[in-house]
Design brief:
The complex is a heterodimer of chains A (293) and B (310).
Chain A (H helix, E strand, L loop, with lengths): L1 H43 L5 H5 L2 E2 L4 E2 L2 H32 L4 H14 L3 H15 L6 H25 L3 H9 L4 H30 L2 H4 L21 H10 L8 H36 L1
Helix pairs in contact in A: 1-11, 3-6, 3-8, 4-6, 5-6, 6-8, 7-8, 8-11, 10-11
Chain B lengths: L1 H10 L7 H16 L1 H17 L8 H6 L3 E2 L6 E2 L2 H32 L2 H16 L2 H20 L7 H25 L3 H9 L4 H30 L2 H6 L17 H8 L8 H37 L1
Antiparallel strand pairs in B: 1-2
Classes of the chains: A mainly alpha (293), B mainly alpha (310).
GO biological process, one term (chain B): phosphate ion transport
Organism (chain B): Halopseudomonas formosensis
Protein name (chain B): Phosphate transport system permease protein
């Protein structure tokens, strides 16, 4: 009797220790993220001021602002989402609304899964060979945007499909029963309630495109430009590439440290705020959807 | 709403094309759009092969894969990528050893133990880590972890296998945690209840029932995490040290395959041997990650079948 009580106490203690370890592994994520953000924020905040945001770099990149990199990143990520969003939503509509399960659908799905797994630097090689050289776009905003669009396409497809799947089947059936065609049903019944949650995919896509470096290294980004870009066929500076070059191959790595921290903080801010916005939006929509059914 | 749709149905009484044809056209349009992903994947493979294969006119596949010297600009040049393959393997191994316990532990905590409030905090945290720009992660590795390693272990350089392994682990944990959590979460409650009713503690239930039931899902998560790490470029470019040699310790610098492509493509003349060799490395990388993704799909299918059987 006493023995079994001891054994039970031991089992409970083992559980306590095990759960403690699991708690620690999970909490480590939180600590890593907070530490990471705080470190960049503390070191970068002093670099960020109006001059930093609004002026051209001066004195061989060691002084002045980073305006061209901000604009470059803006153009590249907006260009990417402009291409990827319609294609992604179209693919999701086909997969979720038109397709019957079969060889073709399985091939598309497996293709998208494998596309998501292609290394980012391989996208860079592809963009260089196809957009820059074969399509003769040169190292340019358009070539970089198209490469980034391919890179974020799986993400956009995934979130658009999720949005479509959340629309109850009964709404489609009701619309079809009233005599609407399939396209009328999609256009007027399925898409309106799905659009807000497709927005999360749009935001996540922009943020992912803004933060990526490898796909634009050979397709769009250069270390320095004399002036701001005036057309989509111009090469650009971009924030991620700027951080990389300043931190690794400049002749004055120490001298430009404050610019590196400042650019890193700004890029981090943009990406984290966009991601947070998308996460909050999605959670809100999920709650609303749950309470309405 | 109702009046406008009625009137539009009436207006469509004598349309240019019948609504049946229209539907067919729309169907065809979306079918074509949905092919884009597959077409891009095909194009990526085509261009890697087209631009990568010419190097094998100059050097045999075995000498390319297992040659130990990479001097693309010497005369005569050497195009052996074995040190880079070993470099990739070493950083992937280190990061896997760190990321698997952390990621799987996080997944079990989230799926089995965490309160709803804790879940509400940790899930966005994990998503945010997944979204961190890789170049900033690499930057932190250069300015924080490298000096730290250098001082603590008294090294020549803090940019080495271990540094890259730590940072790549940070990137693999969210992938592993979120996919493994789904698998753990979907273990039927009835199975757990059975174990608990027989007197097992919650922890014993997790070890004896939940873990075996979700093992293929966890395997999928781990394989996908590894696949992500193999292809990761910026971190290994910035913190792995860049030396194209076979490492002998955890603190030796290496030059993983993605880092080599990213570092040298800018200097390689268009369609030179060097350019073709870099594309061939890209092809090796593509095939490797493709195989890992296929393996993950295999585990995922197996896992689904187990789920259906129950």
């Amino acid at each position: 009797m006493l023995g079994s009580e001891n054994r039970n106490r031991r089992r409970r203690n083992i559980q306590k220790v095990a759960f403690g370890i699991l708690w620690a592994t999970a909490t480590l994520n939180l600590l890593a993220l907070v530490g990471f953000l705080l470190f960049i924020a503390v070191n970068g905040i002093s670099a960020i001021n109006w001059e930093f945001l609004s002026e051209m770099p001066r004195n061989a990149m060691t002084e002045g602002g980073i305006l061209p990199t901000i604009l470059g990143t803006l153009y590249l990520s907006l260009g990417a989402i402009l291409v990827a969003f319609p294609i992604g939503v179209g693919t999701a509509i086909y997969l979720n609304e038109f397709a019957r399960d079969g060889f073709w659908v399985r091939m598309i799905r497996q293709g998208v899964v494998n596309l998501a797994g292609v290394p980012s630097v391989v996208y860079g090689l592809f963009g260089l060979a196809f957009f820059v050289i074969i399509m003769k776009l040169g190292v340019s905003i358009i070539a970089g945007s198209l490469t980034l669009a391919a890179f974020i396409l799986p993400l956009v497809i995934g979130s658009a499909e999720e949005a479509l799947r959340a629309v109850p089947r009964n709404m489609r059936l009701a619309s079809l029963a009233l005599g609407a065609t399939r396209w009328q049903t999609i256009y007027r019944v399925v898409l309106p309630p799905a659009l807000p949650s497709m927005l999360t995919g749009l935001i996540l896509g922009i943020s992912r495109a803004a933060g990526e470096t490898a796909p634009i290294m050979f397709t769009a980004a250069v270390f320095s430009t004399a002036k701001l870009p005036t057309s989509i066929f111009d090469e650009v500076m971009a924030m991620p590439y700027h951080i990389y070059v300043l931190a690794t191959s400049g002749t004055n790595i120490e001298e430009t440290r404050h610019l590196q921290y400042g650019t890193a903080l700004l890029l981090l801010l943009i990406v984290v705020v966009l991601n947070l916005f998308a996460i909050l939006l999605r959670n809100r929509l999920q709650k609303r959807y749950k309470s309405s059914t | 709403m109702s009046t406008s749709s009625i009137s539009s149905f009436q207006a469509a009484k004598k349309p240019l094309i019948s609504s049946r044809t229209m539907d067919l056209l729309v169907h065809l349009f979306f079918l074509l759009v949905s092919a884009t992903g597959v077409i891009i994947l095909g194009l990526i493979l085509v261009f890697l092969v087209m631009e990568g294969l010419p190097i094998f006119d100059k050097i045999s596949v075995t000498d390319f894969l297992f040659g130990s010297a990479w001097y693309p600009t010497y005369d005569p040049p050497d195009y052996g990528i074995f040190p880079m393959i070993v470099g990739s393997a070493s950083v992937v191994l280190v990061s896997t050893l760190i990321a698997v316990p952390l990621g799987v532990g996080t997944a079990f905590y989230l799926a089995e133990i965490a309160s709803p409030r804790m879940r509400g905090i940790l899930k966005p945290v994990i998503e945010l880590i997944e979204g961190l720009p890789t170049v900033v992660i690499g930057f932190v590795g250069m300015v924080v972890i490298a000096p730290l390693l250098q001082n603590v272990f008294n090294l020549d350089t803090g940019l080495n296998v271990f540094n890259a392994g730590i940072l790549l682990a940070l990137m693999a944990v969210p992938t592993i945690a979120s996919i493994a959590e789904d698998a753990i979460y979907s273990v039927p409650k009835s199975m757990k209840d059975g174990a608990l009713a027989l007197g097992a503690t919650h922890w014993e239930t997790i070890c004896g029932v939940v873990f075996p039931a979700s093992i293929t899902g966890i395997a999928t998560a781990v394989v996908l995490g590894i696949a992500r790490v193999i292809g990761e470029t910026m971190v290994v470019l910035m913190v792995a040290g860049g030396a194209a040699m076979i490492p002998h310790s955890l603190f030796d610098p290496v030059r993983p395959m993605p880092a080599n492509i990213a570092a040298e493509m800018g200097n390689a003349a268009f369609r030179s041997d060097h350019y073709h060799a870099l594309f061939a490395i890209g092809l090796v990388l593509f095939v490797t990650t493709f195989l890992f993704n296929l393996l993950a799909s295999y585990f995922a299918n197996k896992y689904r079948r187990v789920g259906e059987a129950i």
